[in-house]
Specification:
Blueprint lengths: L1 E6 L3 H13 L3 E5 L7 H4 L11 H4 L5 H6 L9 H14 L6 E3 L3 E7 L4 E6 L4 E9 L21 E4 L14 E5 L3 H10 L5 E6 L6 E2 L7 H9 L1 H10 L18 H13 L4 H4 L9 H18 L3 H7 L13 E2 L2 H4 L5 E5 L5 E4 L3 E4 L2 E4 L2 E4 L8 H4 L2 E3 L6 H4 L18 E3 L12 H22 L4 E3 L1 H15 L33 H13 L5 E3 L1
Parallel strand pairs: 1-2, 1-6, 2-3, 4-17, 6-18, 7-16, 8-9, 8-16, 9-12, 10-11
Antiparallel strand pairs: 4-5, 5-6, 13-14, 14-15, 19-20
The structure holds NADP nicotinamide-adenine-dinucleotide phosphate.
The site of NADP nicotinamide-adenine-dinucleotide phosphate (NAP) has 23 residues, from helix 6.
Length: 531
């Protein structure tokens, strides 16, 4: 019987196993993939890269890793990030604590034993006292329903399951479905070499320039010398990024001031235009309309054909109310003669054929179809495991009307289950590693506390869960994002039953979340029943 099992060898799982091993517990990690890396292991699609400043994304806990690792770009590409994960795994000797190629299919809690029985897809079973899920918030890929897809003679790849070997792009006729943060990255990359690219867009997003560049040698030295300041800054901001809302209000600034401020943000690297903007743009419709008009003008300036530009301007949601895709020459790709934009609201896809896709406007012949159609966000990876708690209740069923959690880390009726980056956890709305480290540290402390006091069971109370879930809804009130369709709101037209908004993220800010978690721990894990 293990003291603890950790599911997933992404950034959460790697750090969690490192901490549990240091505690001297019998702990073991399990990972469906063949190696470490999580998101960065699976999402190998062309153009995948950070939207967070590289040096704000890496782990902060190891001085040795910080000293030895060099990021090459301000927003590093996926191959480098995967190398980073491997570097950390080697340095901390983590691989020996994981078993790879094992996907957890079911977890059943035994009330009598206060233990979980785990069953993996290779038929193996494992028992553990504490089950820590580190399965990632964007790791359950979703396929579109596309009739006839099985007849398509070309190649089909989902961005979140991109194969290790090379997928040929050069000179091929490529179709991309999806224009979220992933689609935008892949489109701007494959447009460079594809023979012909057709983008199938259902909903345009408000994209902003990443303004990436290589890190020079003097910058590298300065970054290394500033890690304390960088991580302190990330700790203080609402979402763990190096950007925080400007306290001024758009509606109090003059038109000239607004224009100058927005031009500045538009030319700066990273999420500043989204997260370091005037404090009212994400809550006040009039302020949001102004920034949306600014962003729409930028699209019109950058896309030569006014009809295409109009199709790329979102009409059903304002700027920043969904995750802002960061781009590099994304809009300019549509100026290429070999790139077409199909607006699915005008010409929907009817079916796939052996040659490609048929839309209401005719057949588009393709050699490669890329599905950038996203994920069953935040809860999907948990739902895909048959998790059965006390009295035979399934987690999936418990969450029928949307997730209910305590701190986004625990669910009543599911003792000894701790869900890193679970629904309603601040890590869902964060520069994720910053919040992952907090989650893992908190879980490790809780496990240590249990061991020190001889407790064998930790379970969130119904009352604490109800209070936290109401708090999650309360802090999101007034945010324009709650009126918009997106994965933040748990909406996904490709999944049955995901047609009603069910908030999945914690929008109260990482500092507030951290304070709450610390207070819970300081009060002897208030809101948890320890037995
Ligand atoms: P997403 O934001 O959910 O976008 C999925 C896209 O596919 C949307 O444009 C969606 O259209 C479209 N789509 C889905 N099903 C469709 C169908 N049946 N027919 C036509 N279009 C369809 O997923 P994502 O782009 O993979 O991004 C998910 C999240 O991952 C991001 O929000 C971000 O948090 C994270 N991410 C991070 C990075 C980074 O940090 N570098 C990069 C990529 C992604 P609708 O909008 O109409 O539903």
């Amino acid at each position: 019987m293990l003291d603890a099992a950790v599911i997933g060898a992404g950034l959460s799982g790697m750090y969690q196993i490192h901490r549990l091993q240091a505690l001297g517990l019998a702990s073991q990690g399990f990972e469906a993939g063949a190696d470490v890396g999580g998101t960065w292991y699976w999402n190998r699609y062309p153009g995948a890269r950070f939207d967070s400043e590289s040096y704000s994304y890496g782990y902060s806990f190891s001085a040795e890793v910080l000293r030895e690792w060099n990021w090459s770009e301000h927003f590093s590409p996926q191959p480098e990030t995967l190398r980073y994960c491997n570097f950390v795994a080697d340095k901390l000797n983590l691989r020996k604590h994981f078993r790879f190629g094992m996907r957890l299919v079911s977890a059943r809690f035994s009330d009598g034993e206060n233990a979980w029985s785990l069953e993996f897809d290779n038929g193996e079973t494992v028992r553990c006292r504490i089950l820590v899920t580190a399965v990632g918030p964007l790791s359950a890929p979703v396929m579109p329903e596309l009739s006839g897809l099985e007849t398509f003679a070309g190649e089909v790849q989902h961005t979140g399951l991109w194969p290790k070997g090379e997928v040929a792009v050069k000179g091929r006729r490529i179709g991309v479905i999806g224009t979220g943060a992933t689609g935008v990255q892949v489109i701007q990359e494959v447009a460079k070499t594809a023979g012909h690219l057709t983008v199938f867009q259902r909903t345009p997003n408000w994209c902003a320039p990443l303004n990436n560049r290589p890190i020079s040698a003097p910058e590298q030295a300065s970054i290394k010398a500033s890690y304390d300041r960088i991580f302190r800054l990330c700790n203080e901001t609402a979402n763990g990024f190096m950007h925080d809302a400007d306290p001024r209000k758009a509606l109090e600034a003059s038109a000239e001031e607004r224009e100058a401020f927005w031009e500045k943000l538009y030319s700066e690297p990273g999420f500043g235009i989204w997260l370091a903007n005037y404090s009212d743009i994400l809550v006040d419709q009039t302020a949001n309309d102004l920034i949306s008009a600014f962003m729409a003008r930028k699209i019109r300036e950058r896309v030569r054909d006014p009809v295409t530009a109009a199709k790329l301007i979102p009409g059903n949601h304002g700027f920043g109310t969904r995750r802002v895709p960061m781009e590099t020459n994304y809009y300019e790709a549509y100026n290429q003669a070999d790139v077409d934009l199909v607006d699915l609201s005008e010409t929907p896809i009817e079916c796939a054929t052996p040659n490609g896709l048929i839309t209401a406007a005719g057949e588009v012949e393709l050699d490669l179809l890329i599905l950038a159609t996203g994920f069953d966000a935040v809860r999907g990876a948990l739902d895909r495991i048959d998790i059965v708690g006390v009295n035979g209740v399934r987690l999936k069923d418990r969450w029928d009307d949307g997730p209910v959690t305590y701190l986004g880390l625990a669910v009543s009726g599911f003792p000894n289950l701790l869900t890193l980056v679970g629904p309603h956890n601040s890590a869902t709305f964060c520069n994720i590693p910053r919040c992952i480290e907090q989650n893992v540290d908190w879980v490790t402390d809780a496990i240590r506390y249990m061991a020190a006091h001889g407790y064998r069971r930790i379970e969130a109370t119904r009352e604490a869960e109800e209070e936290w879930t109401s708090h999650v809804f309360e802090v999101a009130q007034g945010l324009l994002m709650t009126k918009t369709r997106s994965w933040f709101m748990g909406l996904n037209a490709n999944i049955q039953g995901r047609d009603k908004p069910r908030l999945l993220v914690y929008a109260g800010g990482a500092p507030r979340y951290r304070e709450r978690c610390d207070a819970v721990a300081a009060q002897g894990y208030a809101g948890f029943q320890l037995t």
